[in-house]
Amino acid sequence: KYNKCWLNFNPINNYGDKEFLTEIIVCTGNKENNSLIIDNAIKELTEALNKMLNIKVDQRILASEDEAATVKSGIILKLTDDSTLKEEGFSIKQIGEAVYIEAKTDKGLLYGSFDLIRRIAQGQSIRGLNITENPKNNFRMLNHWDNMDGSIERGYSGNSFFFENDEIILDERIVDYARLIASVGINATVINNVNVHEAATELITDRYLGKLRTMADIFAGYGIKLYLSANFAAPIELGGLPVSDPLDKDVEEWWKNCIKKVYEYIPHFGGFLIKADSEGRPGPFTYGRTHAEGANLLARILKPYGGILIWRCFVYNCQQDWRDYKTDRARAAYDNFIGLDGEFDDNVILQIKNGPMDFQVREPVSPLFGGLKNTNMILEVQAAQEYTGHQKDVCYLIPMWKEVLDFETYAKKDGSTVADIVSGRAYNQVNCGMAAVSNTGNDYNWTGNDLAASNLYGFGRLAWNTELSSEQIAMEWIKQTFPHEDKVINTVHEILMKSWPVYEKYTSPLGIGWMVNPNNHYGPNVDGYEYDRWGTYHRADRDGMGVDRTVKNGTGYAGQYNEPLASMYENIETCPEELLLFFHYVRYDYKLKTGKTLIQHIYDTHFEGVEEVEKMIEGWKELKGLIPDDVHDRVSARFNMQLENAIEWRDRVNTYFYRKSGVKDEKGRKIF
Ligand code: BDP
């Protein structure tokens, strides 16, 4: 039915440290029974050690502290009050004949168990291991854009494994889903699409809450909280009220009863995610209310239950006029939210997309991260490859997300990167972190392209520890997924690390974005959105291209950044070249730092992009026989689609700009 991705627990040959690993001893103080979480930790360790090292593990559960104190060998799971540990943190120490996994909570023990498994799965020695791990982000979430009919908005891996025909699916796959995401530290998930229509609006009613409780319990066994996307107009659609005005007493009363019921069914329910006043979704603007008024209404009601209200900042006018140069979609999130800084309740979190537009292959970092100072924030990235190849083309996104996290916002004098801000370090916040739009579906391999599982894996690992490198994350994933052959490891690693730059080369140049087929967003269509209402333009003419977003002559977007960033982007000479066309209108004969003209850069990168895809394919071919055939075949089929796509992009983009500019390729290659 499906594979287990990085939890395959492939056999590890010649592993040296087997002697510590034959017994699991659980010392959870005086607890009468183990929690579900501890049970799951034991299950994972037992299965992993059995499959990877062929060890039949014995288990002993010790209830009293006295007994626990006498245990000196085996894998020892132990609760501790060590003050260096956070609630979800853990330590692992290998001493003598024992490996101690210690944590403050059951959840920490689960994460510690997965950490130990991860090390062994990579063939690492655990002798003398002595580590302490605390997550950098408190919220490590997935957002599924799954619809109740089983389709997935921007899903490229089959259908939903949560929903089908307006019903909730509860099967073994839900458990394996929970295992997969918990193993990389994800602790919250929103299972339904942010665009909440029809049956999905009813998820918060008796019709579905019973089954959701069962699902939430499964998740809880892996330390994961269930969240739902809610419809801001639910009081109208479900309650029959005339309005969903956040300041209306009946509306408030309706939500009170609704939320009370939700918590009666699911006492450990996480809260709501809301997309309001965006792309046709209802919101407070209809009633002349602010987004703070909208969010706070729900947050206040959720508060006594410990619930969280996550409000998306993806708010913009999708009915723009391309003739009006001053309106700029890139400005929208900042313009809509900066004035509300400090007005949101403390259990509200604003969820902000990494860039100001919409998950393009290259965008500047959203200026909201450096702007908001008294607001909880979550960084939203998209693992689903909507604009980065639909999980046909390989595109390892961790390097992109790393760049976002490492971006210096200059929000504070002593430095504050996006990672500092969304982790809560910068302003001492608790409710913040990272969310990814999930790339999963009910395909055999979960992610369409087997290689795309690296993005799901990597998101979790990065959200747990933003300081891990892209290279390390790739390596971890490869070693847990593929046989430990140098050739396999090196080839896959190289493919992953090159994949984002390569995708960027053959698609839209220097940060301008888009140029995709409208609606489905795969494949090239240079003018697809050009004279359209969605606000996504390249503004190419016979002399040049790019959007002037300067304060002096353009849309003013560059001015949304703190100094020295604003000045850096404002000036064409200091603007980072990979974003040149995002911030400036640039002539085709403009000389880039490489000495190449803009037009020659476009030609060259598009030819190179295709050549590099061909090289990746050659590398992959050589892995035949070294990795399981089914994996090899599936990825090969994707690579064929990628090559076709890359060629189409190359030819369309090059031809388009050749015809616009009339400038020939210096190297005389064939442009149509
Ligand atoms: C865009 C998608 C659209 C989503 C929207 C969102 O094209 O399907 O509904 O983002 O994030 O990327 O709400």
UniProtKB/TrEMBL annotation:
Residues 447-669 form the Glycosyl hydrolase family 67 C-terminal domain. Keywords: Carbohydrate metabolism, Glycosidase, Hydrolase, Polysaccharide degradation, Xylan degradation. The keyword Transmembrane helix does not apply. The keyword Hydrolase applies. Residues 120-446 form the Glycosyl hydrolase family 67 catalytic domain. One of its GO terms (biological process) is xylan catabolic process. One of its GO terms (cellular component) is extracellular region. Gene3D superfamilies: Alpha-glucuronidase, C-terminal domain, Chitobiase/beta-hexosaminidase domain 2-like, Glycosidases. Residues 5-116 form the Alpha glucuronidase N-terminal domain. GO terms for molecular function: alpha-glucuronidase activity; xylan alpha-1,2-glucuronosidase activity. It catalyses: Hydrolysis of (1->2)-alpha-D-(4-O-methyl)glucuronosyl links in the main chain of hardwood xylans. The active site is at E279 (proton donor), D358 (proton acceptor), E386 (proton acceptor). Belongs to the glycosyl hydrolase 67 family. Homodimer. This is Xylan alpha-1,2-glucuronidase. It comes from Herbinix luporum.
